[in-house]
Amino acid sequence: MQGKRGNVREGTSGLAILGMVVLVGGLVFGGAFGIPAFCRYQDRAEAENRVSVTAIQIQNTNQLIEVEKKKAEVRVAEAHGISDSQRIIDSSLTPYYLQYLAIGAQKEMAHSPNHTQIYIPVGTNGIPLVKNVDANSNDKPSEAKK
User: Fold this and answer.
1) Going by C-beta distance under 8 Å and a sequence separation of 6 or more, which residues neighbour residue 96?
2) Dihedral pair phi/psi, residue 66, rounded to 5°
3) What gap in Å lies between CA 26 and CA 23, rounded to an integer?
4) How many alpha carbons fall within 13 Å on the CB side of residue 47?
5) 134: which DSSP letter?
6) How far from the centroid of its chain's Cα atoms is residue 143's Cα?
7) Region 126-140: what's the mean pLDDT?
8) From CA 26, how far away is CA 20, in angstroms rounded?
9) Which residues of 61-85 are buried (b: 16+ CB within 10 A; e: fewer)?
10) Residues 57-100 pLDDT 10s
11) Under the phi-then-psi rule, with left for phi > 0, alpha for psi from -120 to 50, and beta for the rest, what region is 133?
């Protein structure tokens, strides 16, 4: 029986060695031909991803351009509105209305506790020149020219 056992072991080790050779050969053969194919597939997938990412970036840039164009249109519309309102105000302002507003402002300032302005009525419409007066300073015309 010992002889049979010895034969079984020798046969098993031969099968194991043969299996190992086939496995190693398969890995070498697969590595030689399978890995480059995988690398080509991976390179192609990465290239397709780069194309997709670039297309998305182009779309985002185009969208930003459109947003900025719309913002510019809004600013132009606001400028036209301001221009129109200034034109309307300019056509309705008269020297008498400005004089009326100046007198109203003078009345408000006269009743203010912080009233530190002197009004000197000058001009044909009576609108005064306004000068702020600081109680701590001694401004003289000759010193102001220096």
Assistant:
1) 125
2) -65, -40
3) 5
4) 6
5) -
6) 52
7) 60
8) 10
9) eeeeeeeeeeeeeeeeeeeeeeeee
10) 999 999 999 999 999 999 999 999 999 999 988 888 887 787 78
11) beta
Q: What is the pLDDT of residues 1-12, one digit of tens each?
A: 444 444 444 545
- What token pair was written down for 145? 């020219």
> Contact at 8 Å (CB) between 96 and 125?
yes
Q: How far is CA 88 from the centre of its chain?
A: 36
Q: What is the distance of C-alpha 12 from the center of its chain?
A: 73
Per the rule left: phi > 0, alpha: psi between -120 and 50, beta: everything else, 126 is left
Q: Hey, where are the domains in the chain?
A: 1-92, 94-135
Q: How many CA atoms lie within 13 A of 125 on its CB side?
A: 12
Pairing outcome for strands 117-121 and 128-132: antiparallel
Query: How do the residues of the chain divide into helix, strand and coil, expressed in percent and rounded to 5?
Result: 75, 5, 15
**For residue 117, what are the β-bridge partners?**
132
